[in-house]
Amino acid sequence: MSSCKICKKNNHTDKDCYSRKRSGKTDREEVSKITFLCDNNSNAGWILDSGASSHMTNNENILQKSQPIQTKVGIASHDGYMTATKIGTVDLGNCELNNVLYIPNLKISLMSVSALTEKGGKVIFHRDTVTISKNKNVVLEGRKNLTGLYMIKGTIKETALNVKEEVKARLWHKRLGHVGIDNMKKLLKLSEGIDMKQENVGKCRTILKIVKRAHRPSK
């Protein structure tokens, strides 16, 4: 009997190698975990993925400096791949992820270990936790969940969404003849055609200038 090329033993062939079967089982287990997350509509955050070559997200609102693309990405799903429609950056507070793919049908965001290390990041796995550091400073931390995958904790800044809302508020404020803030808030409650949030109705520079001039002491 010829020796096994995988484990170098002489009592079996390559196809019957226990090491190969054990490795294959591990791969299937990892795929099944990711598939479970893809099949279930989960919004749990970011999963640290050692098999992903790029960061991926299903949340378009957190994507900054985005550009349209059409790229098929191999992932554990029913069809074997999904389509990324945008690429951009994501601000996680202590660090920024670059070249993040936006995949609308993805059920959970995936953080790539290789993409982190390529940018100088250091990923250290512990028994139940993981730390991600850069320049000897810990920037992200994570914890292993019940499926054995590491969930990353991070403060995501939805900057793009906030900027859009602020622009809408300022635009409607000008259209309505610089109406007062209280009246703007009342209008939001009564109208269905104005799409913005009350907290984004800030102070108008034009009105502030008028107020300052009105209260300017006479010489």
Structure description:
The chain has 219 residues and is α+β, with helices and mostly antiparallel strands. The protein folds into two domains: 45-153, Cathepsin D, subunit A, domain 1; 169-215, no CATH class. The protein has helices spanning 18-39, 113-118, 159-175, 181-190, 205-214, and strands at 46-49, 56-57, 64-74, 81-91, 96-102, 109-112, 122-125, 129-134, 137-144, 150-153. The strands form two sheets. A six-stranded mixed sheet has the order 6-1-10-9-8-7. Strands 2-5-4-3 form a four-stranded mixed sheet, with no helix packed on it. Mean pLDDT is 68; it is low at 19-42, 156-167, 192-196 and 206-215.
Chain-wise SSE layout:
Elements: H1 18-39, E1 46-49, E2 56-57, E3 64-74, E4 81-91, E5 96-102, E6 109-112, H2 113-118, E7 122-125, E8 129-134, E9 137-144, E10 150-153, H3 159-175, H4 181-190, H5 205-214
Parallel strand pairs: 1-6, 2-5
Antiparallel strand pairs: 1-10, 3-4, 4-5, 7-8, 8-9, 9-10
InterPro entries: GAG-pre-integrase_dom, PolX-like_BBD
Protein name: Copia protein
Pfam families: gag_pre-integrs, Pol_BBD
